[in-house]
Amino acid sequence: MNKRVHSRSAFNRKQAVLQTSGRFGGLAFPGSGSGLTGSFIWGIMSVMMLVVMAGALAAARAATYQEEVLADSPLVYYPMDETDGTTAQNLGSLGPYVDGTYSDTTTMVLLGQNSASAGLGTAVKLASGYIDVPDLGQGPLDQVSIELWINRQSDPASGEISAIYTTAWAGNGLHMNLKNATPAGPQFEFAIPAGGAHPQFFPMWPTNEWHYLVVTRDGTTSAVRVYLDGKFVSEGIKDAAPEFTEGEIGAWNGGRNLNALVDEFAIYPTVLSEDRIAAHFQAAQLSLDPPEIVLQPQGATLYPGDHITLSAAARGQALAFQWFKDDLAITGASNYSYTIDPITLADAGSYALQVSNVVGSVKSTNAILTVSGGTKPISLISYFTFDTGSVTNTSELRNEVVGRQNGIFRDATAGFAPAPAAISTEDKVVGDGALQLEGNTFLQLLEESSLNGLPAYTFAAWVKVMAVGVDPVVGIYSPDSFPQAGTLQITADNNGQVQATYDGGGDRVLVTPTPSDWFHLAFTHDAAAGVTNAVLYINGVAVGTNVADIPGDLGKASSLGSIGWGSRLWGLIDDMRIYDGALTADKIAALPGLAAEPVTLSFSRSGDKLTLTWNFTDFILQQNDSLTNPVGWTDVAGGNTSPVTVTIGAGAKYFRLKK
């Protein structure tokens, strides 16, 4: 920088000499020549040379990050370089009209933090505060790009959301969130209430690292594209265009706070090209770290028709990804994750991910994928016992299947916030508790996309409906957003009916009446077309059938004890199970609590006293001196009630239970 200033100063001095020598008579110009002609030519050449030098120096100077951003005409651009005050200055085209406001600059919002590089100035730490963004007054933006630098300090809690940038939750409002809703970790979500499902992108970038995030939406294709550190990482579809009403960076309505450092937030009314996104990133002049893999891909044993997403997580900046199968690069597999759907026998092999940047590269361990040609066994894929030992903290209930999502107990009277889980001592099956619901609580089952598209499944649970409350219909099990094709909803109503609606469009299996005490409810579904294969069981007996010809989507966020966080059940639920296949009638009848319990006769001895105990009340204890004398069996005194104590005498004595 000093050299460039010095050259410009020398150039200005030469210009001054020529200007004072504007009249040539008798004046000598500085230089080696004598007389007018030589001096004049030298002066002209000096000026030209210095002009060329100055131009070359200007061309060689790389544009700053701020210059690159402003060159793309953002509506909003908050550099966040303030060190005091509550105003976040907007350098975008909308000017001070949309200056942001720091909610608190003492404890919740901390100014003057170190950013990703010195070229970005300072950053802001959002501990529990946010930056208020005024209404941009633009209406829905069909073409839009949003960018920021972010260093997230922690993940949201299981089942929770941290807001990166939000506007109103209605119509075309926009929510960019961190959403912790999968077993493998948090996702980035681009949510607009209108326009269909919300694109979600996984895996998340690591905590405690600065990363450059850009999201674009192209209205001509509805494509939402996500870029990390200047490189494209994933794509989804969102039909609705976002509208930028009053919003917040780092929160939604003052809640769902983001624990992160943020910097250089900008909104553009255009879709930034990949070249421009890369130029912004490069202008930050980062010192890149070599890549490091922090989560290795995991193999599996699968069957033809299954699907799998292999994924890994890596630290570093400006990363590139390449998946290999049996040491050969897979064409087009250049993302964090690699999905195979459907699995075939040819997909068996060894898979690894190579992560690289300009500093170096690293390869993951091998994930071995085995594809079996045999018949796929039915597996238990979700299981909640609802015993006291399954409560992992005050609001989280453990899923006993390793790798599956736990459930979050929520209270409608507290704004659906997580609440201390209620476990009743009235247990139905082996254990010490059952889920207790009192008309204002329910258990949220978190989204697991791997449970969507199941060709067959079984849902089973013990249920005691104590009251349906003020609603004519209450949910026993229901997706949070219904109807959706392939989802399952099981309800009870004031007419004494239990019904299973399984396709999101009205197809159902109905049973009347609702049992008045504990009952076992099971629903099996097989998507083989043209077969009566949707079956509802009560206490192990099939009570209704219908035809189900579409795969089941049980991976949507759903609830036990409510319908879409409303219409809540008053009652008890125990031993909830989901299988990845349709159990046969005999397998349903053999589930815990339904299977016929064997009669057992046991004894203990103390001196000459023998105490006999049995497990059913409708049996009588009998005795005999010889097994070869079938008519020698007689009832033991008091033998119609367990236990019975008898005195041991001389000789042999045999005992049995008679129905």
SSE topology:
Layout: H1 2-20, H2 36-60, H3 65-71, E1 76-78, E2 87-88, E3 100-102, E4 109-114, E5 122-126, E6 131-133, E7 143-152, E8 161-166, E9 175-179, E10 187-191, E11 200-201, E12 211-218, E13 223-228, E14 231-237, E15 247-249, E16 260-268, H4 274-283, E17 292-295, E18 300-302, E19 308-311, E20 313-315, E21 320-325, E22 328-329, E23 337-340, E24 349-356, E25 361-363, E26 367-371, E27 380-384, E28 396-397, E29 407-411, E30 417-418, E31 423-424, E32 434-438, E33 441-445, E34 456-467, E35 473-479, E36 489-493, E37 498-501, E38 508-511, E39 519-526, E40 532-538, E41 541-547, E42 558-560, E43 570-579, H5 585-589, E44 601-606, E45 609-614, E46 620-624, E47 634-635, E48 644-647, E49 654-658
Parallel strand pairs: 18-26
Antiparallel strand pairs: 1-16, 2-3, 3-6, 4-5, 5-16, 6-15, 7-12, 7-16, 8-9, 8-15, 9-10, 10-11, 12-13, 13-14, 17-20, 19-23, 21-22, 21-24, 24-25, 24-26, 27-43, 28-29, 29-30, 29-33, 31-32, 32-43, 33-42, 34-39, 34-43, 35-36, 35-42, 36-37, 37-38, 39-40, 40-41, 44-45, 45-48, 46-47, 46-49
Helix pairs in contact: 1-2, 3-4
